[in-house]
Amino acid sequence: MRRTMFVLAVLGALICGGYLAVREAVRWAVAHPGPALGVGAVVLPLLVVVAVVAVRGMPRLRELRRAARAGKAEAEAEVAAMAATVPVAEAAPAVEVEAADAAPWRVEDFLALDADGFEQAIARLCERDGCRDVQVVGGAGDLGADVLATASDGRRLIIQCKRYGETNKVGSQDVQRFGGTCFTVHEAEIAAVVTTSTFTEPAADYAATCGIRCFDGERLVAWANGDGAAPWG
After folding, report:
1. Which of 4, 13, 49, 97 is spaced 20 to 30 A from 194 at the CA atom?
2. Which pTM value belongs to this model?
3. 220 contact partners, CB below 8 Å, separation of at least 6
4. Cβ atoms of 192 and 159 closer than 8 Å
5. What is the pLDDT of residues 72-124, one digit of tens each?
6. What angle do CA 146, 147, 151 make, to 5 degrees?
7. 213 with 192: CB under 8 angstroms?
């Protein structure tokens, strides 16, 4: 649209300019008939040559325009063909993760895990049941905390994991060491010891006095299978 308006404006200017030039030339020729004949003899053949060249050039110009359009269409077709042959990237397959809450769980299933795997399984159970910000921090220098989390009700949860065999009970010293750090160091609002075994009576008594929750193997299996409460429940 802009190009058309520009061409029309140029043509209008040329027509106006040509009209003014012809008018002045006629006036000059009337006033000076002798010199006008000489100038006309030179200018008229030049105008004829220009007109002939312009007329002959118009078909060539049309051919060039057709060639340009054909070339553009050919280029567009080539680009479309190339785009059609480009392979579409396939979506990466979803990674399958084995859930820690695969039912039915047994104590033997937890014992089949190593210590790190047991802590990871407890963390996954916490996530499954609505905990946020779950972290596994067990290891050297953990000061008794193996799993940190925020319970579904917003309370800070600290869990110590004890993967013990059936005959190896969690003793009072284990619970006392945890009790010395879970509240003062880790600022727990809920502190729990989760084990695959059971607790000695002194350990259970100390935990009850300090407000530490004891989860033995039976309660752990019930929690994992959805048949019992979670440590913060």
Report:
1. 97
2. 0.56
3. 107, 110, 194, 195, 196
4. yes
5. 455 455 535 544 443 433 433 333 334 444 559 999 999 999 999 999 999 99
6. 155
7. yes
